Amino acid sequence: MGQIALEGMEFFAFHGFYDEEQKIGNKYGVDLYIQTDLHAAAASDNLDETVNYEKLYKVVLHEMGSPARLLEHLGHRIIEGVYQEFPFVQQVKVSVSKFNPPLGGICHKAKVTLEKNKA
Predict the structure, then answer these.
(1) Is the pLDDT of residue 114 over 80?
(2) Catalytic (active site) residue 93
(3) pTM of the prediction?
(4) How far apart, in whole angstroms, are the C-alpha atoms of residue 47 and residue 41?
(5) Which of 27, 55, 58, 98 is an active site residue?
(6) What are phi and psi of 68, to 5 degrees?
(7) Which CATH class is domain 2-117?
(8) Using one digit for the tens of pLDDT, what is the confidence trace for 24-56?
(9) How far apart are CA 73 and CA 82, in angstroms?
(10) Binning pLDDT at 50, 70 and 90, where does residue 119 land?
(11) Lyase: is it a keyword of this entry (predicted)?
């Protein structure tokens, strides 16, 4: 077993509970952690035997392009997208952050983290 991580991904997207947030947009961050068997790829040096980082990024990019009201829902969609693209993955953990959330005061970011093990 091993871990693949894409950390510090940043997007400008149109998520948020309030309609105004979905109109003006905001900056978001995503950290993604994948648990899977990396031994075959480590031995063979063959990209087809592991999770392709570019395809993984495109899963996140796709979900970031479709508005969501809640960060929890967005994280759920990212996890499901990873499992759809890479059914052999054993575990997915994702953190989604909204920078400068509209809370009426200073807050650098609001963040949710979701984790799902393959059933």
Answers:
(1) yes
(2) no
(3) 0.95
(4) 7
(5) 98
(6) -135, 150
(7) alpha beta
(8) 999 999 999 999 999 999 999 999 999 999 999
(9) 14
(10) confident
(11) yes
Pairing mode, strands 91-99 and 2-13? unpaired
The structural domains of the chain, with segments of one domain joined by +, span 2-117
**Among residues 80, 88, 87, which one has the least CA distance to residue 32?**
80
SS (H, E, C) the chain: CEEEEEEEEEEEECCCCCHHHHHHCEEEEEEEEEEECCHHHHHHCCHHHCCCHHHHHHHHHHHHCCCCCCHHHHHHHHHHHHHHHCCCCCEEEEEEEEECCCCCCCCCEEEEEEEEECC
